[in-house]
Write a structure and sequence with these properties.
Blueprint lengths: L2 E7 L2 E6 L6 H12 L4 E7 L4 E6 L3 H10 L17 H23 L3 H24 L5 H14 L3 H33 L5 E6 L2 E6 L8 E4 L8 E12 L1 H4 L5 E3 L4 E2 L4 E13 L3 H13 L6 H28 L2 H8 L4 H21 L2 E3 L2 H9 L2 E5 H5 L5 E7 L5 H12 L5 H12 L12 E3 L3 E6 L2 E6 L1 H7 L9 H5 L6 E7 L2 E9 L6 H10 L4 E5 L4 H11 L3 E3 L4 H13 L4 E5 L5 H6 L2 E5 L4 H6 L2 E3 L5 H36 L5 H20 L5 H6 L1
Parallel strand pairs: 13-20, 13-22, 20-21, 22-23, 23-24
Antiparallel strand pairs: 1-2, 2-4, 3-4, 5-6, 5-7, 7-11, 8-9, 8-10, 8-11, 12-24, 14-19, 15-16, 16-17, 17-18, 18-19
Length: 698
């Protein structure tokens, strides 16, 4: 691909692709290619000009060579990405806005007055009908106010004022609809499936295959804690399925043979074998769009209050108009009051602020499922962290396999990996990765695997019962013993590692030592969260007290709790809420799901279990915890802007009413200033709440 470097500074390139024009699809393909190049941090592609801005770090020459190699046809774009990218939506609304402005200009400066009057009269019918329908339903709301202002202007022969009012109202509607649809689209794309591999059942064996290899009528096995990747019919097993992403139901639904399951729902408990009926990824995207548009989750309480306040203020505008006429007996002054109302700006600016905040969060790879969660996050006083994969790194590593018996460390690791590969936990992933790195093949050697949440796994290999899990599970729940001759060896296990205990036939066979280092940024993030107004930072973990105490001291939490069960985390959160605290839960595992549901705001680290991401209200896809600070600052900035908007709307419109009633400004000027201020506040509400500079400065 030929290109020209138009501008360059260190770490940033602006290039122009040498081609006659760039289609929307080509722009999306090129953006996908850029975003997946090594060293590229961020990129923007402008299809109108064929330009691209690339932010990068590392070798400039390597980047230029990659750009030279680019060909549209050679880029393998994921299915569904081009169809739902949002670029076409933006182009459509840009064209609509430009067309509106052109028509308005032609109508005002080219068409003669009679044609202008006819056009404005016909156009006004839509607003008048809307107001009449509202009155027939017994409601005195904003459409009635709009219809009255336009109707009175027409009756007075003031077509200029009527046209201006309708033009600004239509611009406001377009901007609101555009922002809403874009925010919903961004949110839906973030929530779309990201399942790479699935367990395919072939000749009674489970084989891990790429999702693209699955065809309709194939049988796939979905284990506990995993997303269901396809629509299909249950042909085996039974499970409790969380369908919150599609239906909004908080309680899981039982699915058994003959039942139908949907892509994107999650197996909360149990296991299912599903006969695939639809492999298209678009059904997931479309279902999410419907869910979001129908869901009240997008409504924050301040947003709902603004809407209700807007409708409640309409009668007062009519009363003010009547008072102005009675006092002054001047219809012009009365109309000046009628042309101004608080409700337009309130109804427009607040939802745009919330949706813009959700959209801005997605630019930091943060998925927010509703405005009310940002509002709660802004007021949160307590934050609870899971330890493993949250405060510690999401990719722990196996450092040693200590054997207690006749087996070899390789045999024990192979056996552990065979069991652990079915379950989405960072510790399990570490075991599977270690076996893969040692080239230990671990084909299915076991019978049905039972996963006990927050405890461990039990199964049979041959005739022998094998369990793997925590100290509490292996020694206390299962009553396993330690061979007498290995007591000293067991007591000398390295304390700096987390331990997974493997027992065969109720006797300890091996201990897998896993290094689970604290995230480098964890301590700093916790300190800054406290500066941001979080009064209590708590760590809760199923790990031993010895390990938990060390981690808690390193990161600087206010309290920590060790060897806790999933219900313990949820109960703690419920207790904090009863005490009047707004609680945030941050976790990544299946065992965090009850706590994520119980919290006012559940935040899932995206590298964790799929069920955690499904249940959580917010998902953070970043490599570190700094985005928690971004979230907190974004939510506080959103609330600050909402309160500022309230003050501006009340001040500006109150001032216009006084100026109109005092005869200082005419109805035309009053209408223009009112609508212009509404548009200005709405445009301001669409701006980013925090900039890259502000983010890094903190």
């Amino acid at each position: 691909m030929k290109f020209i470097i138009k501008h360059e500074i260190l770490g940033r390139l602006r290039i122009h692709l040498v081609q006659s024009s760039m289609s929307i699809q080509q722009a999306d393909i090129f953006l996908y290619y850029l975003e997946h190049l090594h060293g590229v941090q961020k990129a923007k592609v402008y299809e109108q000009t064929g330009d691209a801005i690339i932010y990068y770090c590392g070798d400039r020459n390597l980047l230029l060579k990659s750009l030279q190699r680019f060909q549209y046809e050679n880029v393998n774009v994921p299915k569904g990405l081009l169809e739902s990218s949002g670029r076409e939506l933006n182009a459509k609304y840009r064209e609509t806005l430009i067309w509106k402005i052109l028509v308005r200009t032609c109508c005002k400066f080219i068409f003669p007055a009679p044609v202008r009057a006819l056009y404005i009269g016909v156009k006004s019918l839509r607003y008048i009908q809307r107001g009449l329908r509202c009155l027939l339903r017994g409601r005195l709301e904003v459409p009635v106010l709009d219809a009255t202002a336009i109707g009175v202007s027409l009756l007075r022969g003031d077509f200029t004022t009527a046209g201006s009012v309708m033009f600004l109202l239509s611009i406001g509607e377009i901007l609101e609809e555009w922002t809403h649809k874009k925010s919903v689209g961004d949110l839906a794309r973030s929530l779309s499936l990201n399942v790479g591999k699935v367990w395919l059942k072939r000749r009674n064996q489970e084989v891990l295959v790429d999702i693209a290899a699955v065809m309709p009528e194939d049988h796939v096995v979905i284990h506990m804690g995993n997303l269901i990747p396809f629509d299909g019919i249950v042909v085996g097993g039974e499970a409790m399925v969380n369908q919150a992403s599609l239906t909004g139901e908080s309680l899981p639904v039982k699915k058994e043979s003959g039942g139908y399951v949907y892509a994107g729902t999650a197996v909360e408990e149990g296991e299912l074998t599903v006969q695939v009926k639809r492999v298209s990824g678009s059904t997931r995207y479309e279902n999410i769009i419907k869910m979001i548009e129908a869901s009240e989750k997008l409504k924050s309480s301040v947003e709902s209050k603004a809407e209700h306040l807007a409708d409640r203020l309409v009668p007062y505008t009519f009363i003010g108009t009547a008072i102005a006429w009675l006092v002054t007996r001047n219809i012009t002054r009365a109309l000046s009051v009628l042309m101004v109302d608080f409700s337009c700006a309130l109804k427009l600016a607040m939802p745009i602020t919330v949706l813009s905040a959700i959209r801005e969060a997605s630019s930091y790879h943060i998925t927010v499922k509703g405005g009310k969660y940002l509002e709660a996050l802004a007021d949160a006083t307590t934050i609870v962290f899971d330890k493993t994969g949250t405060l510690t790194k999401a990719r722990p590593t196996v450092k040693d396999v200590v054997v207690f018996g006749d087996g070899t460390s390789a045999e024990m690791l192979r056996m552990a990996a065979c069991l652990e590969e079915h379950f989405p936990h960072s510790m399990a992933k570490a075991v599977v990765k270690a076996a893969r790195e040692q080239h230990l093949e671990h084909h299915e050697m076991h019978s049905k695997v039972d996963y006990i949440v927050a405890h461990g796994i039990a199964s049979y290999i041959g005739e022998k019962r094998v369990i793997i899990g925590s100290y509490h599970f292996v020694f206390e729940d299962e009553g396993c013993g330690i061979p007498h001759e290995f007591k000293n060896k067991f007591d000398q296990l390295p304390s700096e590692y987390s331990h997974l205990y493997l027992a065969i036939e109720n006797e300890l066979a091996a201990v897998i030592c896993i290094e689970d280092p604290v995230r480098e940024e964890a301590k700093d993030v916790i300190q800054q969260l406290k500066h941001e107004g979080i009064h209590k930072v708590v760590m809760m973990t199923g790990d031993s007290d010895r390990t938990a105490a060390v981690i808690a001291k390193q990161v600087g939490v206010n309290e920590y709790y060790s060897e806790v069960l999933p219900e313990d985390k949820a109960n703690y959160i419920l207790k904090e809420k009863e005490n009047g605290n707004i609680v945030v839960m941050v976790g990544d595992g299946i065992n965090d799901s009850p706590a994520l549901s119980a919290a006012d705001v559940g935040i899932a680290i995206s590298d964790g279990a799929e069920i955690a991401r499904e249940i959580a209200d917010i998902t953070v896809a970043a490599e570190d915890l700094q985005e928690l600070l971004t979230l907190r600052r974004l939510s506080k900035a959103m609330m600050k802007r909402i309160h500022t908007n309230y003050r501006i709307i009340l001040g500006v419109n109150g001032g216009l009413i006084l100026l109109g009633a005092g005869g200082i400004i005419q109805p035309t000027v009053s209408a223009f200033l009112h609508n212009a201020s509404t548009l200005g506040i709405s445009l301001r509400s669409m701006e980013n709440l925090i900039s890259e500079e502000n983010k890094s400065a903190h």
